Every structure is written in C-alpha cells, then in structure tokens.
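Class, carefully examine what follows:
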Amino acid sequence: MFNMKRLRELRKSQGVTQREIAQYLGVSISTYSGWETGVYQMDYEHLCKTADFFGVTVDELLGRTPQLFDDARIQKSDEQALFDELTAEEKQMVVGYMKGLIFNRSKGRKAQ
C-alpha cells in the first residue's frame, strides 16, 4: 500500500479542501479521504491526475524524493504557476474555456 502522507501535505499547503480535489478527480469525498488516510489505494489514473493537479511527479506524490537529474527539471511557466494558484473549481472553468476556444477555432469561428 502507498504512503499517502504527502497527499495531505500537498493539499493543505495549497489550501485545497478534500471536497474540491474530490470534485476535480470525479470521486466522492469519502473515497478521496480514504486515499489520503491510506484506507484505500489510489489507482494509476487517479495518481497521475492528482500529481498533475498539484504540479508534482507521481514519485513526489508518493513521497519519493528525486535523486537523479534534479537540476534537469523543467521550470514552470508563468501560466502554469498562475494555474496552480486556482481552486479546483476555477481550474475546471479555465479548462472549459480553453476547450471552447479550441472548438471555435476548429470551426473557423473567433472567440468573443
């Protein structure tokens, strides 16, 4: 079983509630809470999505510290840093807006 202590630390440090992250991941609060406390084991898909949400690698999410190539890590862009400041709900809104822009572009329309 994974040690998900880091999951709670990340969530608290970013000021995200269990409800917000559960909604973003599409799971119930009790499922997310179970992952955070180690009662349940998170599947691969949710590990990846959670790591993306917090802007970390799956290894970092699981509490493993990178030992090789630390200096080769790519720095976050200004846009990524701003996105990380948003709540889960705000992130969903931004992603929805971006999908709308792409859809409109594919249809030859300009966004208003």
In short: Residues 88-106 form the longest helix (19 residues).
